Amino acid sequence: MAALTDFAGRLAVVTGAGSGIGRELVAQLVAARARVAACDIRLGAVRRTRTEVLKRWPDGQVTAHECDVTDATALARFRSEMSEAHDSEALHLLINNAGAVGGASFVADDPSEWERTFAVNFHGTYLTTRAFLPMLLAADQGVVVNVASVNALWASLGSGTAHTAYSTAKFAVRGFTESLIGDFALHAPHLSAVLVLPGHVRTAMPPPPPPWRRAFNAALAHTSATTASDAAVQILHGIQTGQWRILIGADAERVDELIRADPTSGYS
Ligand SMILES: NC(=O)c1ccc[n+]([C@@H]2O[C@H](COP(=O)([O-])OP(=O)(O)OC[C@H]3O[C@@H](n4cnc5c(N)ncnc54)[C@H](O)[C@@H]3O)[C@@H](O)[C@H]2O)c1
């Protein structure tokens, strides 16, 4: 993958920027002198991100936008707002970070919650990439970064738990991202796609339940959560060094090794 070695002056979009990993990505991109359009479904939260970032880097170029990434009309509005605010028809970095948990059981939970979780995590990634494709095509170089999860490798949080909607969506995000690699090479060689696979990161998202630590013969028992700030450091470093697959945390690395060594062991 072609590395985006220097963020200075580049235009970036970060979704789900009102909290956690998204907020840290915005701060670190602004610190690296990128221009950033940050969005979230919660306008107050993304405005707080902007205010906090500008306190630390008063000359930073960052705009805050309300956008539900499952809504194509809202995405079109966000694209025209940010394009006008940053006076640019070209986008260099799209980070599809917005995500949410829910719809644990396909059997027992409300189908509307299941579908909403799938929509935020998968349709959000697809629709946002679709909305910004013309701006990415207009850039001299562009990178699409999709934040999936270790649940794109392993559709579980350990035995005795159900985790279906989120895992299904994150597997789809992985398939979309990996298939874009070949498509971009063929049809838009100045673009590249990056897949991020975090294990547990300490954010507003609920931590994994106790069975997580007992999975794979307790192989995850002694791993600890990554901070949102470290996760953002690793994501941006991966983009700058041309990695297309970024595992975050010792837990994600262990799951990746174990599930490939013995694909059946994760579900026992
Ligand atoms: N925290 C973890 O342990 C962990 C692990 C693996 C993957 N991830 C992934 O990392 C990404 C960031 O999550 P986080 O941990 O920072 O969580 P977070 O809850 O702190 O932040 C997620 C943000 O996404 C926003 N959001 C939710 N639905 C949205 C929508 N429809 N449109 C726009 N914004 C929306 C929320 O308002 C929130 O600000 C997500 O894709 C998540 O699935 C997190």
Quick recap:
With 268 residues, the chain is of the alpha/beta class. The protein is built from eight helices and nine strands. α5 links the parallel β5 and β6 (191-198).
Please name the defining characteristics of this protein:
268 residues; Rossmann fold; two-stranded parallel sheet; 8 helices; 46% helix
Description:
The protein is an alpha/beta fold and 268 residues long. The chain has a single domain, classed as NAD(P)-binding Rossmann-like Domain (Rossmann fold, 3-Layer(aba) Sandwich), CATH 3.40.50. It is built from 8 helices and 9 strands. It has a 7-stranded parallel beta sheet, sandwiched between helices. A two-stranded parallel sheet has the order 7-8. Strand 2, helix 2 and strand 3 form a beta-alpha-beta unit. Helix 1 packs parallel to helix 2, helix 1 packs across helix 7 and helix 3 runs parallel beside helix 4. The relative contact order is 0.14. The structure holds nicotinamide-adenine-dinucleotide. Nicotinamide-adenine-dinucleotide binds next to helix 1 and helix 4.
Please identify the top-level CATH class. Alpha Beta
Give the domain tally: 1
Question: In total, how many beta strands?
Answer: 9
Task: Please report the distance between the alpha carbons of the first and last residues.
Answer: 36 Å
Sequence-ordered SSE layout with sheet pairings:
Layout: E1 11-14, H1 20-31, E2 35-40, H2 43-56, E3 61-66, H3 72-85, E4 93-96, H4 111-137, E5 142-147, H5 164-187, E6 191-198, E7 201-202, H6 211-218, E8 226-227, H7 228-240, E9 245-248, H8 250-261
Parallel strand pairs: 1-2, 1-4, 2-3, 4-5, 5-6, 6-9, 7-8
Helix pairs in contact: 1-2, 1-7, 3-4, 4-5
Bound molecules: nicotinamide-adenine-dinucleotide.
